[in-house]
Amino acid sequence: MQNTSSFIRFIKKHLFEAIDFVFPPQCPYCNQIIHRSQIMCDDCFKQIHFITGSKCHRCGRPLPLTDSEEKLLCPNCIAKRKIYDLSRSAFVYDSFSRNAILKLKHADRTDLRHFFVQYMIRAGADLFEKTDLIIPVPLHWKRRLTRKYNQSSVLAELLAKKIKKPYSTTVLTRQRFTRSQAFKNNQKRKENVKNAFCINPNYDIKGLSVLLIDDVLTTGATAEACAKILKQNGAKAVYVLTIAQVIQN
Ligand SMILES: [Zn+2]
Ligand SMILES: [Zn+2]
């Protein structure tokens, strides 16, 4: 038995070495050759702007470093509450994370989900204990046809598996086709997604705390439209977890 497992390990090791020799793993951003245990090269990794340290308790945006043990709030959250309760993001949305997310979204690089989900788990750690159900922000079927998959579902499915929580792509659906939210201001984004989502009447979400998964949190208009319909149907709380967040001044 011992000999069989060491033989399998030996074969596996040499098989991987042979594959790496013929098809060396490459950094998805700069094509530099990397080790099989790496997801990207060290130079690219250094360019990621992680959200760590002091953060707003409600929206998760970075705040100036402090030793305070109190739950801090950013000026936006003090001024106005969002319909969703809490949001967290792994990275700041900048040219580097934008590029990486575009690869996941439009370039069939669903393998990047492992990298993103690893850091989304770190960013959203305080949300999981109180989460009952994980739901990706849905795509309209027409958009899914052209894109082949919903990047938020790809992330949500892996995240649910890792944190061992139920996940559904059929509870929340997009009933209305909406134009892209890009290049729209907050008001226009709100109008664009107004009444775009609906809850499948076959599900009862009363009293559940829902964790919504999306790729980017910009003004929060899409997440708010989802949270509104979820709460109208009895959800107790709605949390939002994204790969990246736009940090406005
Ligand atoms: Zn690189
Ligand atoms: Zn905030």
The CATH class label of the largest domain is Alpha Beta
Which oligomeric state applies? single chain
Helices and strands: which structural class?
alpha/beta
Q: How much is the average pLDDT?
A: 87
Bound molecules: zinc ion
Alpha-carbon distance between the two ends: 62 Å
Question: Strand percentage, roughly?
Answer: 5-15%
Lateral arrangement of strands in the main beta sheet: 1-6-5-2
Q: What overall form do the CA principal axes indicate?
A: globular
Unreliable spans are none
Reading the helices and strands in chain order gives HHHEHHHEHHEHEEHE
Estimated radius of gyration? 20 Å
> What CATH architecture of the largest domain would you give?
3-Layer(aba) Sandwich
Q: How many beta strands in the DSSP annotation?
A: 6
Q: Strand count, sense and closure of the main sheet?
A: 4 strands, parallel
Percent helix range: 25-40%
Give the domain tally: 2
Number of helical segments?
10
What are its keywords?
alpha/beta; Rossmann fold; 2 domains; four-stranded parallel beta sheet; two-stranded antiparallel ribbon; 10 helices; globular; binds zinc ion
Topology overview:
Layout lengths: L1 H21 L19 H4 L29 H5 L6 E7 L2 H12 L6 H11 L1 H4 L4 E4 L4 H7 L3 H13 L8 E3 L11 H8 L3 E3 L9 E9 L3 H12 L4 E9 L4
Parallel strand pairs: 1-6, 2-5, 5-6
Antiparallel strand pairs: 3-4
The structure holds zinc ion (ZN) (2 copies).
What would you say this structure looks like, in words?
The protein has 249 residues and is α/β, with parallel strands linked by helices. It has helices spanning 2-22, 42-45, 75-79, 95-106, 113-123, 125-128, 141-147, 151-163, 186-193, 221-232, and strands at residues 86-92, 133-136, 172-174, 197-199, 209-217, 237-245. The chain folds into 2 domains: 1-47, no CATH class; 49-245, Rossmann fold. The strands form 2 sheets. Strands 1-6-5-2 form a 4-stranded parallel beta sheet. A two-stranded antiparallel ribbon has the order 3-4. Helix 10 links the parallel strand 5 and strand 6 (237-245). Helix 5 (113-123) crosses helix 8 (151-163). It binds zinc ion (2 copies). One zinc ion is lined by residues 56, 58-59, 61, 73-74, 76-77.
